[in-house]
Amino acid sequence: MATTTDYLALDLGAESGRGMLGRFDGERIALEEVHRFPNQPVKLLDTLHWDLPRLFDDMKAAIRKAATLSPGATLDGIGVDTWGVDFGLIGRGDTLLGNPVHYRDARTDGMMDAAFAAVSRERIYEVTGLQFLPFNTIFQLLALRRAKSPLLDVAETLLMMPDLFGWLLTGRRAGERTDASTTQLLDPRTGAWSDELCKALDLPRAILPGLIDPGTELGPLLPSIAEEAGLSRPVAVIAPGTHDTASAVAAVPASSSSSSAPPDWCYLSSGTWSLLGVEVSQPVINAETMRYNLTNEGGVAGTTRLLKNIMGLWLVQESRRTWARAGREMSYEELTARAQVAPPFSALVDPDDSSFLSHGDMPSRLAAYCKRTNQVLPSDEGAIVRCCLESLALKYRWTIERLEGILGTTIRTIHVVGGGSKNALLCQFTADACGRPVHAGPVEATAIGNILMQAIGRGKLGSIRDLRAVVARSFPAVVFEPRDTAAWDDAAGRFAALVK
Fold this sequence. Notes:
Protein name: Rhamnulokinase
Enzyme class: transferase
Domain Carbohydrate kinase FGGY N-terminal: 7-249
GO molecular function, one term: glycerol kinase activity
Family: Belongs to the FGGY kinase family.
Number of helices: 19
């Protein structure tokens, strides 16, 4: 009988976090959710923060529950993954210098223009190959520098969010490469921090941490946390692909890309954000990738994720919150059912319009966008959700077409992973809009990739190819075949006129 080994994934998303216990028998993995908790930002003195103490307390609760559910002391690893770009600062004597600031905070307003006044947009992209987003770490740090923040004067180390939690769990300060790649301060060709950009923007290079690869053991869980959790023996904390998309893409049940042939499949990590791209062996940095604002982020096993960040289901999530505040509480299932019967293509929006980025009244912002583009946004909630989903599917098509042109390949299959893979309507829209089959699942790809990268780190799996074979055996995909593509071809022409 095969020995089963347990691993705990602490997977934090923009809306919620979860502790997922993975039981791996060498062939298949079984998942059990041990703890789920909300992730609600907190505004203090007009600054939007992550509630770090509450999140860490919930993470410890997940460890306690996992220890109870992992009989015979079989828990062999703990790994943390989160979103990218955000960070905490550590001062002398392991002092946490305040709560990390949320990427949707307004402090980065105007910072891209300020950066380009010192270093050209072209040069920053040439060095980093990263998509320009106003909240990238480079612009957050520039905001601190221009505000003459005293935190930069006393900080010893900057740790990205998953690295920050790794430090709280083990006491070790280290930066894992996949999350470091979201900062726009890392040179993806050399794998090193860019001294050039730090110097040009007067950013403190000395606080950027030493870098480690996915699968590296950070160290044992601190004794005080192990005791609080009721663990009878030391448990290793292992850095997976700590950027959640890196872990999600690791768990895509597709054949790994070869070192030479362009990929014929793409991934779509679908949730609050939609991250659509391909896995390549080397960064792709040229005039075309810059023109379309594509990004080169670090993947596991030395790969690069050439992708585009798309606003994603944030449009629906923030609309739902707006309606709930007005007393119209509806589940996602109800909204999706109403969207399914709403008239098609009544209005279209570019999901990445800057007006949609921050918290607030999303239906009003969608209506204002439609007014600017000579469209009428329906007032019915189902029709608004349908507008969002159709627009997302068309943005996926637009992105795939540009990836194909840049790489000289044909994308034949779309692998959708993450929470959005449960949305059958969006998956069908995606297949129809793109004219390609969609393979949906696994839903918990991020946690699965986290867990199986821990297994690689512990020597229980040999390669990313082995990892993906485990996923394919454990979680059969749901396939959506394209249909009625002609109507989507017509809508794609309307949509293309909206994309800047």
